[in-house]
UniProtKB/TrEMBL annotation:
Keywords, alphabetical: Membrane, Transmembrane, Transmembrane helix
Coiled coil spans: none
Superkingdom: Bacteria
Keyword Translocase part of the UniProt annotation: no
TM regions (residue ranges): 12-32, 59-78, 85-102, 108-125, 132-149, 161-184, 196-217, 264-280, 287-304, 316-334, 346-366, 386-405
Organism: Echinicola arenosa
UniProt protein name: Glycosyltransferase RgtA/B/C/D-like domain-containing protein
């Protein structure tokens, strides 16, 4: 980015970054993920409706993840897109705080560019997840660390509050716990003022005592929260303690590298390396703060256990990793001249980014592999006048491609409309049978938190068949997005087909398009003299399903 950026232009980059996030929040919305976000939306709504929400489920103790979004839905209606306004505010607040700590227009511009262009950070911008809130609390910890000498009392209060609320949002904030100790060691060596640490540790102890006292009074156990975290662990495909030792060895050695590559964090990881190394050479306080925090988070995600009873490294869900973008983006911004122009660092970064491309190609991800190689080529080979423009385009373009892909894949407004209609038609004698993930999300999808549904999951239908209480007719709602997000749901489709065949149900009405399939089944008597073929089946195909473009592309 040109060094000629003046004071007015740096505000322009901040405004552009904020505008980009706002526009993305408005137009990049692609619906819920039918997962934990639904739980947080419901908890927030229940909290503000005055219901008891705190239980031994460790999700309920993450009140920092749902209080703000719940207030929005309580005031303006039960709408998941509106609820995610909290995520937008968290992102904007984080970006503003970190931008304020940076020393010059160039570093500020690069920070905004790299912070606001990560596809996963943007994907969860329109969702309600604790990780979005944790971006803010991570930024606040680092912001407070920067001002610890100028304003020791206020910085200590801010940092302790950020750690406390961050922990009440999601436990991964503890990965930053070594940071205050590292800063204390740094200030001790430099014989700098250490009043900040007196205030910080004192306020943190007070908060901890209050927190433990609350659980002692409410649940008669000061360690209730920690026990609920431990009890919340279960064996799954994403745990490691129950797997072969080779799986564990892969997880704590090279597997995280593949995750960074496959989940598109590789660029940030590699470009942050010069900033981390240079921090220990130039020993500037700002650089060291973000270098230390990067190291804490990397080691935490790589090695730290999620359990108190056994060693189980955290599953590296790309959603969890978005808090890395705060320190990584600053490391990148502070040493942009190095990786852009320095002979060694430019080649170092270019070659390692290209290496990530070859890993992606080896995993048969041609698009991602090609992208990494293109980025490395632009960084290494483009002339200086057009290098910045090329890299900006390569960073921003995937964000538009990603949101277009997701919106087409899910077509959430269409799902919402048709699912709401199906729910409204359902009644006790004509229930709706659908995927478990849709049934659990029904309140969010329909926007009606209180309505009791006449809907069944697969287990409910099987139970009625077992008790010989099956309805005379019912409708089955299939959302084809399950093939992408929940491939195991193919068992639901197969089991429904088996039940209808074995219990003399015939389809009398079918609506199908690229995204959904709704089938109205009616039961017939096996002693009926009429064959199933005499029932009129009304099939309503979606016109695009048979368009020439669909035929040409094999859809």
């Amino acid at each position: 980015m040109p060094n000629q950026l003046n004071q007015n232009q740096q505000y322009l980059t901040l405004g552009a970054g904020g505008f980009f996030l706002v526009v993305y929040w408005i137009f990049g919305y692609d619906g819920i993920t039918f997962s934990d976000d639904v739980s947080y939306l419901e908890l927030g709504q229940r909290f503000w409706m005055g219901e008891e929400v705190l239980t031994n489920d460790h999700f309920t103790s993450r009140w920092g993840a749902y209080i703000f979004s719940g207030l929005i839905t309580f005031l303006f209606g039960y709408n998941d897109h509106l609820a995610s306004l909290s995520s937008l505010i968290y992102y904007l607040g984080a970006m503003l705080m970190i931008w304020k700590t940076l020393p010059n227009p160039t570093s500020r511009g690069f920070f905004v560019l790299f912070f606001a262009s990560n596809v996963y950070l943007l994907h969860f911008l329109t969702k309600v997840y604790p990780d979005a809130a944790l971006v803010f609390w991570t930024a606040l910890i680092l912001f407070a660390a920067f001002y610890r000498h100028q304003k020791p009392l206020w910085s200590a209060l801010l940092m302790s509050a950020a750690f406390f609320v961050g922990f009440c949002t999601k436990e991964t904030i503890v990965f930053l716990a070594p940071l205050p100790l590292m800063l204390w060691w740094l200030d001790f060596r430099n014989k700098a003022q250490r009043l900040f640490y007196v205030y910080f540790f004192s306020s943190l102890v007070i908060l901890a005592i209050g927190y433990l006292t609350y659980f002692s009074l409410k649940f008669e156990d000061p360690l209730f929260r920690f026990k609920s975290i431990q009890d919340g662990h279960y064996i799954s495909p994403y745990t490691y303690f129950d797997k072969d030792w080779k799986v564990m060895l892969q997880r704590i050695t090279y597997s995280p590298v593949f995750t960074f590559v496959e989940r598109a964090y590789w660029l940030w990881f590699i470009l942050a390396v010069p900033g981390i190394f240079r921090a220990f050479k130039n020993k500037r306080d700002l650089s060291l703060i973000f270098a230390f925090s990067s190291i804490c988070l990397i080691l935490g995600f790589w090695f730290m256990s999620t359990s108190f009873s056994y060693y189980n490294p955290i599953y590296l869900n790309p959603r969890h990793l978005i808090i890395l973008l705060v320190p990584f983006s600053v490391n990148i911004a502070l040493e942009s001249k190095r990786w852009m122009d320095n002979f060694f660092w430019n080649r170092f970064c270019s070659l390692w980014i290209a290496f990530g491309g070859f890993i992606a190609l080896g995993a048969l991800d041609w698009k991602l592999g090609t992208y990494y190689i293109l980025f490395a080529g632009a960084l290494l080979l483009c002339p200086k006048p057009i290098k910045t423009v090329s890299l900006v385009i390569l960073l921003i373009l995937p964000t538009f491609i990603s949101v277009g892909y997701q919106k087409h894949l899910k077509n959430y407004p269409h799902l919402k409309e048709e699912f709401t209609k199906a729910m409204e038609k359902s009644r006790s004698s004509f229930p709706l049978v659908t995927h478990d993930f849709l049934l659990k999300s029904r309140g969010v999808i329909t926007g009606n938190y209180n309505k009791a549904p006449h809907a069944l999951a697969l287990d409910g239908l099987k139970e009625k068949v077992r008790l010989d209480q099956q309805p005379e007719e019912f409708q089955v709602f299939i959302y084809k997005y399950y093939k992408h997000a929940y491939p195991e749901e193919v068992g639901f489709v197969n089991e429904v087909n088996r039940i209808t065949e074995n219990n003399h149900y015939v389809p009398v009405n079918i609506f199908e398009d690229k995204w959904i399939k709704i089938t109205h089944f009616k039961r017939v008597s096996p002693l009926s003299p009429f064959s199933n073929s005499e029932y009129s089946i009304n099939i309503e195909p979606y016109s695009e399903l048979f368009s020439w473009s669909s035929i040409d592309t094999g859809q």
